[in-house]
Design a protein that fits this description.
- The chain has about 325 residues and is an alpha+beta fold.
- Among the domains are: about 130 residues, no CATH class; about 60 residues, no CATH class.
- Strands 4-3-2-1-6-5 form a six-stranded antiparallel sheet, covered by helices on one side.
- Strand 1 and strand 2 form a beta hairpin.
- Helix 8 runs antiparallel to helix 9.
- The longest helix is centred in the last third of the chain and has 39 residues.
- One of its GO terms (molecular function) is DNA-binding transcription factor activity.
- Putative transcription factor.
C-alpha cells in the first residue's frame, strides 16, 4: 500500500484449532491517521494456505490495546505468537519459524501477510548491520581494550533449509569461497536451489522420478535431499515410492514373460497372465497419482507366489546340476 507505514503487526494462533491464524495490522497513513486491519488465515499442514473473510473478533471480544500486546498475550482462544511495534525498543523479538519465508514457503500464497513480514525481515537485517557497526565503534573508542582477536565468521543459517530471500544479496561478503572449502566439488554439487525453483516443483514433476531412489531424484531435480523430503510432505507423500514402483515393474515384467511362454501352449493361462499385467499396470498408475497408497494385498500375494516359484526353479536347477555331476563321476569310475 502506497503512502502507508506499518507501525504494528500482531500474529495470533488459535489454541483449539491450531491451523487458524489471525493477524492485526496497524498502518499510519500519510495524513497522520491510523488504520487497523484484522485478517484470518488457514495454515493447513497438508494443503496450501489461504485467507478467509473475517470480522474483527479480537477487538470485539474485549477492548484490545494493540500497543500493549506482546508475545504470550491471550485473548480468548487466541494466543499471540509474534508482536512487532515500530515505536518500541526493541521493536520485536525473534521471528517464529512459521512466519519465516525461508522455513515456510507456503507464505507466498498469502501476500497480504507476507508483504508486511518482508518489512520486518528488512528491519531485522538492518538491525544486525547497525549492531555490528556500533560494536566496532565501541571497541575503537576503548583505549584500554585488549588487542582484537581474529573473529571467525559463523554461519547462523541452518543449511537444511533455504536461506532468507532478503539475504541473497550479491555483495562479496555474502559469497562463500568455494576454493577454500576442503571439498570444492561436493560443495558446488550441494548448492541449494532458489526459493522460486522449489516452489514451482509440482507433483506431476515428481512422478517422473518415482522409479529411481530419492537421492538420485534430488540430484536430477537440482534440490537438496532435505528440501525434497519437505516438498514430499507438502504433497502428502510420507515415503518415497521408489521401492513400490520398482517392485511393480518387476512383477509386470515377470507376468509378461509368463504370458509370452504360455501363449502357444495354454491360451487360457496366457489370457489370465495378460489380465494380471493390466491389473498391475493400473495399480502402478494409481500409486503414481496417490503415492501414499500401499501395494494391494492381492499384489503382495502374487509377488510372494512368484518369489516361491523362482526359489523352486533355482533349487531344481541346482539339484539337476548335482545329479548330472554325480552321474558323470560314476561313469568315469566304471570306465576306469
Amino acid at each position: 500500500m502506497k503512502n502507508t507505514l506499518l507501525t504494528t503487526l500482531l500474529v495470533f494462533k488459535n489454541t483449539i484449532r491450531e491451523e487458524l491464524i489471525r493477524s492485526v495490522h496497524v498502518y499510519q497513513i500519510k495524513d497522520g491517521k491510523v488504520r487497523e486491519v484484522e485478517r484470518e488465515f488457514v495454515f493447513s499442514e497438508s494443503g496450501s494456505y489461504g485467507e478467509m473473510r473475517s470480522t474483527p473478533i479480537l477487538r470485539l471480544q474485549k477492548k484490545l490495546c494493540v500497543a500493549e500486546v506482546s508475545e504470550g498475550y491471550q485473548n480468548g482462544v487466541w494466543l499471540c505468537i509474534f508482536s512487532f511495534h515500530r515505536n518500541h525498543k526493541p521493536q520485536f523479538s525473534s521471528i517464529p519459524n512459521l512466519l519465516l519465508l525461508s522455513r515456510n514457503l507456503k507464505l507466498r500464497t498469502i501476500p497480504t501477510l507476507l508483504r508486511d513480514l518482508r518489512v520486518i525481515y528488512k528491519l531485522e537485517k538492518d538491525k544486525d548491520v547497525l549492531s555490528d557497526s556500533t560494536g566496532e565503534e565501541r571497541q575503537g573508542n576503548n583505549k584500554d581494550s585488549q588487542p582484537l582477536r581474529k573473529v571467525v565468521p559463523v554461519l547462523t543459517q541452518d543449511l537444511n533449509f533455504l536461506p532468507y530471500e532478503d539475504d541473497m544479496s550479491e555483495s562479496p561478503d555474502n559469497k562463500l569461497d568455494v576454493q577454500a572449502l576442503p571439498d570444492a566439488d561436493s560443495a558446488e554439487k550441494k548448492k541449494r536451489a532458489s526459493s522460486d525453483r522449489v516452489a514451482k516443483i509440482t507433483l506431476s514433476e515428481l512422478v517422473k522420478y518415482f522409479d529411481i531412489p530419492i537421492v538420485e531424484a534430488s540430484r536430477r531435480l537440482n534440490v537438496g535431499l532435505t528440501v525434497l523430503k519437505r516438498k514430499c510432505r507438502e504433497f502428502g507423500i510420507p515415503r518415497w515410492p521408489h521401492r513400490k514402483i520398482k517392485s511393480l515393474d518387476s512383477l509386470i515384467h515377470e507376468i509378461q514373460e509368463e504370458a509370452n511362454n504360455q501363449e502357444s501352449d495354454d491360451k487360457a493361462a496366457a489370457l489370465a497372465a495378460i489380465e494380471k499385467r493390466r491389473m498391475l499396470e493400473s495399480e502402478k498408475e494409481n500409486i503414481e497419482r496417490k503415492p501414499f497408497m500401499d501395494i494391494q494385498s492381492e499384489t503382495k500375494k502374487l509377488r510372494q507366489d512368484i518369489f516361491k516359484r523362482r526359489h523352486r526353479a533355482r533349487a531344481q536347477v541346482k539339484n539337476n546340476s548335482t545329479v548330472s555331476s554325480s552321474s558323470s563321476s560314476n561313469k568315469t569310475t566304471i570306465e576306469t
